[in-house]
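Model: You mentioned two targets. I'll fold them one after the other.
Researcher: Yes, keep them separate.
Model: Target one:
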Amino acid sequence: MSSDLNDYYHLHPEVKGQGKYVQKIDLPDGNYNVFVDIDPKGLSYSVEPIHLSIGHTNEDPSKNKLIADTNFTKTINGQTVELITDIIKMNKEVTFNFDVKDATPEPYLGALGHVVITDEKGGKFIHVHPMSEKETVFMTIFDERGLYKMWAEFKLDGEVIVYPFVIEVQ
C-alpha cells in the first residue's frame, strides 16, 4: 500500500522454490509499506511493514489525515457495495457485513472476499476472510482507537473490485 494510503495492491508472488517468491510490479514514484502475510509451518511470525521507496519521493507518511466515511455505500465500475456495521469499539468484536448489490461475488483466492485494514500510519496489517463460504460477513477486533483505512475486495463478473472505506474505532 502507498504510504499515503491511496493505493493498494493485493499480490500473490510466484513460487521460485527453496522458500523464494518473486513479484514484479510497476509502481509510481512514492513510498510504500509492503506486508508479507505468511504462515510458516512450526514457526511464529508477525506481519510488520517493509518500507519501500520508488524514485523521487518527498511524501511524509506521518501526515496522513484520514477522514472517517459518513457514507458506507460505494459504487465502482457500476457495481455497488454497502458496508453495514455497528459502532466500532476497541477490544470488542466487530462485524462487517458487505451487501453486494445486484450481484453475487465469485470465489477469489479461496474466499468470497478479502478485507485488509491498516491504521492511519500504515503500520498495522489486519487481513480478514469471510466468516462463511456463503456470506460476505467479516469479523475482527481492534486493539487501538483511531481511524483506519479498509479495502474490501470482491470478484464480480470476473473482475476483482476494491472498495476503500475509512472507519473510526472508538
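Model: Target two:
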Amino acid sequence: MSFPVNRMRRIRRTDPLRALVRETTVEPGDLIFPLFVCAGEGIRKEVSSMPGIYNISVDEAVREAEEAASLGLGGLILFGVTASKDERGTGAWDEYGIVQRALRAIKQSQASKQLVLIADVCLCEYTSHGHCGIVTESKGTFEIDNDATLKLLARAAVSYAKAGADIVAPSDMMDGRVAAIRTALDAEGHSYTPILSYASKFFSAFYGPFREAAGSAPQFGDRRSYQMDGANLREAMREIDLDIEEGADMILMKPAMPYLDVIRAARERVGVPIGAYQVSGEFSMLTAAIQNGWLDHDRAILESLTSIRRAGADFAITYFAKVAAKLLG
C-alpha cells in the first residue's frame, strides 16, 4: 500500500517517536580521544591548526584521562611529541619515552579503570626524516626498508605493552607488521594484548594538522609508497584480509568521512570490531566552518559522528570526543 495509507512522517512527529525508531546511535563509550604528549610539566600548548587541541605534558595527560573517564569516553589513544629524533626512531621503544611515561602515569590513576589506553605504534614521530620506517638510499633514490622496519615496530609495541597499553595500534602500513608485532608480544608474555591494525590507511590530504601536532611531517618525499591510494577499494579489502590473517584483533579505517564506503565494505566483509579515525583535517575543516558560523556546532559534530557509526564503525577516534560526550550527556 502507498500514500495515503502509508505515511512515513507518522514516526517522525515527536522526539520520543524519533528516538524509539532510531537505527544508529552514538554514545560516549563509542568515542576515543587522542592525546599528544610532550616532555615537561604543566604544559598545554595549543595546536594552531586544531583549535582546542593541545600538546600536553604527562601530568596534564593524567588530568585529561580523568576528564575523559568522567565523561564516559571509551578510551584514549596516545601519540608522542619529542624533539629527540634519530634516523631509526629509537624513542619509540625507549623505556622512559614520553608515551611510556604517560601510560604508566595514567595507569596509576583512577581513570585507568574506566578507559581503554591505546598506544599508536609508528616511527614517524621519532625519526629525524619523518618517515614511518627505516630509510635507505641507493644512487640518490630513497626507499623505505619494509622488512628492517618490522623489528623496530615490534620492539615499540612490546615497550608500550610493558608500560601499560591495553591495545597497540600499528599505523605505519608496512607489509607484515601485524604478524611481527603479534609474534613479539607473545614471546614477551603479552599474548592478551590486542592489536588494532590501521588496516586501510590512505594517503590523504587530511593529515596536515596532525603532522603539526605530532611534529611528524616527512622531511623529503611523501608516503605514497606505503599508505594506500585513495582510489582503491578492492586493495583496501585485501589489506584488511591480510591483517586479520596475520592476527589483527580489530581494524581501523583512516580517514573516516571521505572513506565511508570503505567502512561499509569492511563491515559487510569481516566480523572483527571496526574503528574509524575522524582525522585532524576533518576536525579542522568542521571546526573552521563552525567558527565562521557556516555550520551549527552541535548538529555538525553529532551528524558527522553518526555518519561514521552508520557506515559500520563500532567506535570512532575523534578530536570531538569530549565535546560530543558533553552534548550526548
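Researcher: Noted. Anything on target two?
Model: Residues 71 and 329 are 8 Å apart (CA to CA).
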